[in-house]
Amino acid sequence: MLKILGKASSINVRKVLWTCAELNLPFDREDWGSGFRPTSEPEFLARNPNAMVPVIQDGDFVLWESNTIIRYLAGQYQGQHLYPAEPKLRARVDQWMDWQATDLNRSWSYAFMALARQSPAHRDEAAIEASCRDWARFMGILDQRLAATGAYVAGDAFTLADIPVGLSVNRWFETPFEKPALPAVAAYYDRLAQRDGYRQYGRNGTA
């Protein structure tokens, strides 16, 4: 059986758990990370030298990096409805997954650490304001995209891209600061909440 290493509240572990739910894929999960077994232990480092969760072990195959993991799971376990084989459709999914992992993530990292995590190392007011401003700008891009599709980020069907993007949308709504009205994002958030996988794993943590 597939083994997932990482605490269930981690946003990157939640990507994997939600993907498993969409694929009806059974798994065993072990708690690793802050508050649980430290990822600095040799047993973990042997699987991921970066000491980061999640890691999966599928038989004798070990893999880390959350977006890579969910692409693998969709490819390995009949997930073409989530990650299509047709090159143009797949590229659209990859585009939004990569955007989430780079532009969107970089924009919210400081604000999230300051406002949601209350990190003592993130107290610079100017940096917080800049992060909130950048975050809102990228969420505006997402709002425009969702208004155009009327459904999901890659088009009219739910795909693998909606898992990392959807978890970032959850983080947007759960971080306390004044936000612009983004009606298409709000409707998307409600749409995601109708999915069993999101109800199980989408709102169960902010780590």
From TrEMBL:
It holds the Pfam family GST_N_2. Residues 86-207 form the GST C-terminal domain. The keyword RNA-binding does not apply. PROSITE patterns: GST_CTER, GST_NTER. Its EC number is 2.5.1.18. Gene3D superfamilies: 1.20.1050.10, Glutaredoxin. InterPro entries: Glutathione-S-Trfase_C-like (IPR010987), Glutathione-S-Trfase_C_sf (IPR036282), Glutathione_S-Trfase (IPR040079), Glutathione_S-Trfase_N (IPR004045), GST_C (IPR004046), Thioredoxin-like_sf (IPR036249). One of its GO terms (molecular function) is glutathione transferase activity. Residues 1-81 form the GST N-terminal domain. Belongs to the GST superfamily. This is Glutathione S-transferase GstB. It comes from Achromobacter animicus. The lineage of its organism: Bacteria, Pseudomonadati, Pseudomonadota, Betaproteobacteria, Burkholderiales.
